Amino acid sequence: TQLLEQSPQFLSIQEGENLTVYCNSSSVFSSLQWYRQEPGEGPVLLVTVVTGGEVKKLKRLTFQFGDARKDSSLHITAAQPGDTGLYLCAGREGNQFYFGTGTSLTVIP
Amino acid sequence: DVKVTQSSRYLVKRTGEKVFLECVQDMDHENMFWYRQDPGLGLRLIYFSYDVKMKEKGDIPEGYSVSREKKERFSLILESASTNQTSMYLCASSLWSGNYGYTFGSGTRLTVV
Fold it and tell me: What is the DSSP letter of A16?
């Protein structure tokens, strides 16, 4: 089992603030994905990053894969209440993805 | 709209009962997975399947079994439910290869009393 640690575990911020969440591992992954899970629902894929150093943007969300492909970050600009949810990273090893424990984000209006 | 459908959103079962959790996907995906999700522990893989009638143990298979008789359907079976199996159960599917993501169902929140 590959271990992916996410930090912080919980984050509560005001609407309009910026934030960054982290996903770290000692393992090298061929790709890494980020999901968002809303209460009572299953996780939904946001992005896949494949190349070391790769940066992808999805509106106000910026995802970066570490150069060594062991870590990743998710930066949200001007957070909105609709960004509230559990953010999960998942690293690919072989034909399987291993999930982190998640960062629970609450954006207060 | 493609989807993964889990048969129940909420279930309450008694200790010792045999419990069936059903999952159906309409995307013709080869891979299917069962996870349980508990606070502070993240998603833990119970079983997965890469093909019909094929199954592989994940990280926490004890107390569970699975069945995949058809490509679109993957069932999780709790042989004799126990209170420590109270959890959110998530089914997911994916294509065989590439970096396609998992498509998850909405989950089944199981309570064993």
Answer: T
Q: Distance between CA atoms of A19 and A60, rounded to whole angstroms?
A: 11
| A18 vs A3: CA distance, rounded Å | 27
pLDDT of residue A96: 78
Amino acid found at B87: S
CA torsion angle A65 A66 A72 A74 (round to 10): -70
**B48–A contact, CB cutoff 8 A:** yes
Q: Indicate the pairing of strand B64-70 with strand B73-78.
A: antiparallel
Interface test with A, best of B37, B50, B95 (most A CBs within 10 A): B37
Q: pLDDT tens digits, residue range A68-91? A: 999 999 999 999 999 999 999 999
Which residues on neighbouring strands pair with residue A12, listed in sequence order?
A106
To the nearest whole Å, the CA of B43 is away from the closest chain A CA by: 6
Interface test with A, best of B49, B102, B103 (most A CBs within 10 A): B102
